[in-house]
Design goal:
Radius of gyration: 13 Å
Structural class: mainly alpha
Order of helices and strands: HHH
Number of strands: 0
Strand content: under 5%
Helix content: over 70%
C-alpha cells in the first residue's frame, strides 16, 4: 500500500514544507485550511517557484 501511494505522501509533505518556508504558514494553519483554500495557496506557490526558476541570478 505504501509503495502505491508513497509518491502522493511524499508530495504532501514536500508541499507542506514549501508552504511553511515560502509563505510562512505554520503546519497547523496548513492542516486547518479548507481544501479549496489549500489549492489556491498551492497554485500561488507553483507560480512563485516558476518565477524564481525563470529569474536570472
Amino acid at each position: 500500500m505504501f509503495a502505491e501511494n508513497g509518491g502522493e505522501l511524499i508530495d504532501y509533505y514536500k508541499t507542506n514544507f514549501l508552504l511553511q518556508k515560502k509563505h510562512n504558514f505554520s503546519l497547523s494553519e496548513i492542516e486547518n485550511m479548507v481544501p479549496f483554500e489549500r489549492e489556491i495557496y498551492i497554485m500561488l506557490l507553483l507560480e512563485l517557484l516558476e518565477k524564481e526558476k525563470n529569474t536570472p541570478k
